[in-house]
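Ops channel
N.P.: pipeline sanity check, posting one input/output pair.
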């Protein structure tokens, strides 16, 4: 019984130890062609954030090197940069992205995830927050729509006060792969229209596989047998 239990624990430990990370540059630390906080995307300075795509040319997606740093000016900000009200450092203390929630200025941030196993369960985790751009005023709402392939979910809606900040919050969600390659996307949805509703994102991770049901069944059965053996031993001792 002891050896069976050890085998169960060993199997689950190996499963956890062998978990694979499928997201590249999930902390947004690796950038190309920029040296400070900037707007990025299809019609701006290029994708900039390695391994991630901001495909919508109208999307106002920003990469921040640090909290409260001004973003490099472009044609939208010919005389000044953009920055966030009341934005503390990211959970990792490094770079993070800001995704505009305005219906006229939003666009998904995406990465193609490869090497998945159909029917296998994967665990997505990330940190996010709600903030506001500094050249606008008023209360806002913010949420993230997160999708992997055809499976999606939406975070809790945050109600951010004027010039406020809410977060950071850690989110974990499980997905079951329906294809070997699936698109992971984060879409910011905010109100009212027009800046400043914005979602901040960092520490994106997709790991798998999680222990299969058969492994958990083996684990539980092993401890059940140990318990039964222990009870039998106690009974035998009482009547010895």
């Amino acid at each position: 019984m002891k050896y069976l239990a050890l085998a169960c624990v060993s199997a689950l430990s190996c499963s956890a130890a062998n978990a694979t990370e499928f997201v590249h540059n999930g902390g947004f630390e690796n950038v190309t062609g920029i040296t400070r906080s900037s707007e990025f995307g299809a019609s701006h300075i290029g994708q900039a954030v390695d391994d991630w795509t901001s495909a919508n040319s109208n999307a106002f997606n920003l990469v921040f090197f640090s909290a409260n740093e001004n973003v490099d000016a472009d044609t939208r900000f010919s005389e000044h940069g953009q920055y966030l009200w009341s934005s503390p450092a990211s959970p990792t203390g490094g770079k993070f992205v800001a995704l505009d929630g305005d219906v006229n200025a939003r666009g998904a941030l995406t990465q193609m995830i490869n090497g998945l196993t159909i029917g296998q369960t994967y665990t997505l985790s990330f940190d996010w927050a709600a903030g506001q751009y500094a050249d606008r005023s008023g209360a806002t709402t913010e949420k993230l729509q997160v999708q992997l392939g055809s499976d999606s979910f939406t975070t809790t809606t945050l109600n951010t006060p004027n010039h406020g900040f809410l977060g950071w919050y850690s989110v974990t969600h499980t997905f079951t792969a329906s294809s070997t390659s699936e698109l992971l996307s984060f879409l910011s949805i905010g109100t009212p229209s027009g800046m400043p509703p914005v979602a901040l994102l960092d520490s994106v991770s997709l790991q798998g596989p999680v222990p299969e049901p058969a492994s958990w069944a083996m684990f539980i059965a092993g401890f059940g047998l140990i318990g039964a053996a222990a009870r039998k031993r106690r009974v035998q001792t009482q009547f010895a």
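N.P.: looks fine end to end. Residues 20-209 form a domain with the Jelly Rolls fold (CATH 2.60.120.260).
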